[in-house]
């Protein structure tokens, strides 16, 4: 009856099936407004179900306004419900996409080696957090973050960076990306540009540009950003990666740092210091952050994506007092807070010095991989290729003087099963540094590094981008 077909073994209840079927017929005009429905007894008999099942369906239709009912009169379809269904917008048929070739040698950047992470210990700490967290911590805790974690991060920064930070100034984020997203909104001043390194990571300039904020680019050399490019410019904030410039790898020297601080104080703008992987320095101690020179105009942003694992989505920002109220407001109406279990587990991980131990171990492993990669590059290309950057991080920039790596190289490398990114992609115009490739190595095994560089040389010989002497 009424074209209703019931499926007795379906996941959806029979009453819900009746409701959905009648609703569809009302909206499409198969049942006209004002049309009377059969009695619940009649419809139940015709469908072979109990009257209560039909009553439940009718009640839902009445509640949502699809039917109207008056005592002593039949139940009828409500007025004004017919929706003219138009044919879905059709685009021109696209050519069938070819299946993407497999990538055997993936030199992507910023990827830690997760095979050495102490997963069993981490799971144990997650269980302890679930068992020990008091009930009042499972509600809305606010935008600052789990306070014990803020305290442990302050202690971690003192141990690892010699930074004297108060826990009250530490704010937990969903990774560095969220911190940068919030900061672009908080720090923008009408008509004044965000100053960014060129080349740089696309995250912050994508966020700023998507909001319509003007950008000003600072050229980068082997020592980092050219601070002189800021002279006379109206600036909202300056974004820098001074401890290990991304992607060229230089360290911003003290005189440039001091010049940047003087400009920030004089012109009343903030410096966003992104310290994304300085734990992994393979010669000497970690580089001191700008924050340690003068914290009044610096927002220090850190993340645990490289030291632990990216899916954790935990980072932090150390905020000057003047920004904290605005930050709390913005974060409250963005996503309120981070998941509490991961924060509590990380606080314990830091408290028991497990992160210290893990970083020491990974620093040694990554340092060995870096040496192997450099030896492999020298063996494959000789002295014709020049590595850029300090002895830090999880990637290398390699310069091939006189060569250019463009989109054709990207296509050729993918076909060869290699993922190696031209560094020009990180430049705003993609016209600078065209002779450089970016190779990440942290996640690769020694065998993958050796075979990957061998495959890269074969590709460059084949495409005419390298000729053996």
TrEMBL record:
The keyword DNA-binding is annotated on this UniProt entry: yes
Keyword line: Aminotransferase, DNA-binding, Pyridoxal phosphate, Transcription, Transcription regulation, Transferase
UniProt xrefs under PANTHER family: HTH-TYPE TRANSCRIPTIONAL REGULATORY PROTEIN GABR
TM spans (from-to): none
Domain of life: Bacteria
Family annotation (Pfam families): Aminotran_1_2 (PF00155), GntR (PF00392)
Protein name, as recorded: GntR family transcriptional regulator / MocR family aminotransferase
Family according to the record: In the C-terminal section; belongs to the class-I pyridoxal-phosphate-dependent aminotransferase family.
HTH gntR-type domain segment(s): 12-80
Gene Ontology molecular-function annotations: DNA binding; DNA-binding transcription factor activity; pyridoxal phosphate binding; transaminase activity
Coiled coil: none
Organism in which the protein naturally occurs: Dendrosporobacter quercicolus
InterPro entries for the chain: Aminotransferase_I/II_large, HTH_trans_reg/aminotransferase, PyrdxlP-dep_Trfase, PyrdxlP-dep_Trfase_major, Tscrpt_reg_HTH_GntR, WH-like_DNA-bd_sf, WH_DNA-bd_sf
SUPFAM superfamilies in the cross-refs: PLP-dependent transferases, Winged helix' DNA-binding domain
Keyword Transferase: yes
């Amino acid at each position: 009856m009424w074209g209703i077909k019931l499926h007795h073994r379906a996941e959806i209840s029979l009453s819900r099936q009746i409701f959905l079927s009648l609703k569809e017929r009302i909206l499409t005009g198969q049942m006209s407004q004002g049309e009377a429905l059969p009695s619940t007894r009649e419809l139940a008999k015709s469908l072979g179900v109990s009257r209560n099942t039909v009553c439940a369906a009718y009640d839902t239709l009445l509640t949502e306004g699809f039917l109207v009912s008056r005592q002593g009169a039949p139940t009828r379809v409500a007025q004004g419900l017919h929706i003219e269904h138009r044919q879905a917008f059709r685009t021109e048929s696209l050519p069938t996409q070819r299946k993407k070739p497999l990538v055997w040698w993936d030199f992507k950047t910023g990827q830690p080696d997760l095979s050495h992470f102490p997963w069993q210990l981490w799971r144990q700490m997650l269980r302890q957090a679930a068992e020990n967290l008091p009930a009042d911590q499972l509600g809305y805790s606010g935008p600052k973050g789990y306070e014990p974690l803020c305290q442990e991060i302050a202690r971690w920064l003192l141990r690892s960076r010699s930074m004297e930070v108060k826990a009250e100034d530490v704010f937990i984020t969903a990774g560095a990306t969220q911190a940068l997203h919030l900061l672009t909104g908080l720090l923008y001043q009408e008509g004044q540009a965000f100053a960014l390194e060129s080349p740089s990571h696309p995250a912050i300039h994508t966020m700023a540009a998507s909001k319509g904020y003007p950008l000003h680019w600072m050229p980068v050399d082997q020592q980092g950003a050219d601070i002189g490019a800021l002279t006379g410019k109206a600036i909202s904030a300056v974004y820098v990666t001074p401890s290990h410039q991304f992607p060229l790898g230089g360290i911003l020297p003290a005189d440039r740092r001091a010049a940047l601080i003087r400009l920030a104080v004089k012109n009343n703008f903030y410096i966003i210091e992104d310290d994304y992987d300085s734990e992994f320095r393979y010669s000497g101690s970690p580089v001191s952050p700008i924050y340690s020179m003068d914290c009044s105009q610096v927002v220090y942003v850190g993340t645990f994506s490289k030291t632990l694992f990216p899916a954790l989505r935990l980072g932090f920002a150390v905020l000057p007092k003047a920004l904290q109220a605005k930050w709390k407001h913005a974060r409250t109406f963005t996503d309120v807070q981070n998941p509490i279990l991961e924060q509590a587990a990380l606080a314990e991980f830091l408290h028991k010095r497990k992160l210290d131990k893990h970083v020491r171990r990974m620093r040694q492993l990554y340092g060995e991989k870096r040496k192997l990669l450099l030896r492999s590059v020298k063996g494959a290309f000789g002295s014709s290729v020049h590595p850029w950057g300090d002895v830090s991080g999880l990637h290398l920039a390699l310069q091939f003087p006189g060569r250019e790596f463009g989109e054709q190289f990207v296509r050729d490398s993918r076909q060869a099963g290699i993922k190696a990114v031209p560094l020009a992609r990180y430049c705003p115009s993609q016209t600078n540094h065209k002779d450089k490739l970016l190779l990440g190595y942290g996640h690769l095994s020694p065998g993958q590094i050796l075979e990957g560089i061998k495959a890269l040389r074969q590709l460059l010989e084949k495409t005419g981008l390298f000729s053996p002497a």
